[in-house]
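User: Show me an example of a complex going from sequences to structure tokens.

Assistant: Sure. Here are the input components:
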Amino acid sequence: MNQWEVFVNDLGELSEGKDLELTVRTLNPGMHMYTYKRVKCKVSSELEQFEDRLQVRLGRGQLSDKKFSIRVVEEIQRMPQKYL
Amino acid sequence: MASIPKDNREYIAALEKSGDCVRIKQEVDWDNEAGAIVRRVCELGAPAPFMEKIKDYPGFSFFGAPLATYRRMAISLGMDPNSTLPEIGKEYLARTNGEVVQPITVDRRDAPCKENILLGSDVDLCKLPVPLVHDGDGGRYVGTWHAVVTKHPVRGDVNWGMYRQMMYDSRTMAGAVFPFSDLGKTLTEYYLPRGEACPFATAIGLSPLAAMAACAPSPIPEPELTGMLMKSPVRLVKCETNDLEVPADAEIIIEGVILPDYKVEEGPFGEYTGYRTSGRDFRVTFRVDAITYRNNATMTISNMGVPTDEGQLLRSFSLGLELEKLLRSQGIPVTGVYMHPGSTHHMMIVGVKPTYSGVAMQIAQLAFGSKLGPWFHMVMVVDDQTDIYNWNEVYHAFCTRCNPERGIHVFKNTTGTALYPHATPHDRKYSIGSQVLFDCLWPVDWDKTNDVPTLVSFKNVYPKDVQEKVVNNWADYGFPSGKATD
């Protein structure tokens, strides 16, 4: 099980049952902890719905007590190819 | 005068010798623990922590709160640790008003920062012990006490600036670069309109005076300013992947380009105001091409928050002294300028000999209209009888002499920073500021005998001989020796 974290201004940004595009960071222990990826994903407030866990922080870093499960469908590369 | 530390290692050794550094031998976690140690050090005014052993990162160390006290500032200048603030300020002004000291370029074989070089697929910021400074920050911050080195492509001006940098992924960083800053202007004037990438190099673990120069809003280019402060040339070496030159004795160098057409999210971050004010946003993005570092490299950490950290202390110090230089250059009869670090460098206190009308307004207009202006929003002008370093005296002058109708002047639609906690979200987004002058001078057209009130204090109303008698007999009266109050 992977652990992810997302920053949102409003929990309404995490619509359940829809395909979402989010910038999430990994909370998996190790040297790459807190690095980001842009992903297509689905989230649910049912913790058993998807295999990974998603923790939420609000606009100024406040930790939300609401937890989600998440399925990362695919990673998205936003950075222009010329910089890769 | 003791020797002036030429790099971060000499500086740590000097601090240990004077008892101003604590060597932590037990393992420290880069995830919050190191940041929490540094934060507590700042809030207690404790010695700077040197953390020898970092979880997940054998061979690296952390050095926190490098310049968070005036003692440490004095040591960085090679002065007695017990030097007073006015003495330190006098020394800073003497050195920075002296001869320019040009840097020298050394061969890469003589540059310790080249002892380890990561290029190509080996480049990974996660190989460096980048700390999560505050819980809830938007990421691990690579740059909290460092210099981002850039060069204007036409004018050739070299800039070392302390622009925060968050690690986004293994090869990408993002940070806040204000549009009124030197780098901000270079980007908006040149690189962004042309869609060209701007070469940069981030130098971490600098000598304390190079860091001081990177923090100072001086018109003197930072490499020269560092040399003037150190009284010897700063040693530079060429980067691996671009033509920039970086301090050869720095602990870590990160090279790359600032992207003109692509941004990633950055923040929030615990800021110098003592708040997380700026939210998460798409900000200036740095793509990394190379990393070089010394053997057993030390990552420096500044932990900004409530007072007092080095951001507040050093910016207050240098902003105050640079304003003093500016005002003197304009012939203003100032007696001193001081920013209390507790104001998070927001309030400039100016002492002046009030010999003509409007001098407080003249000071405020020069201060707010200068390059220094966006960094503070309050100017308080007091007379030369008020000790600008004594907050009790300044506060008393403010509360009693600043006329609510005549003494408070608001300047609207000026330049501000996105980090002002009191600013509206709109004003933060567009760096719109507002500023205020508190004129605490007696009006010059008041009759000094009959209109100006007399200050009633021990020093002001008793004859000298009576004062001396009372002071000399103080213990005999039965009072404890030392200060009578507190």
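The lines above are the inputs; the final block is the predicted structure for all two components together. Chain A touches chain B at residues 7, 9, 23, 25, 30-37, 57, 59-63, 78-80, 83 (CB under 8 Å).
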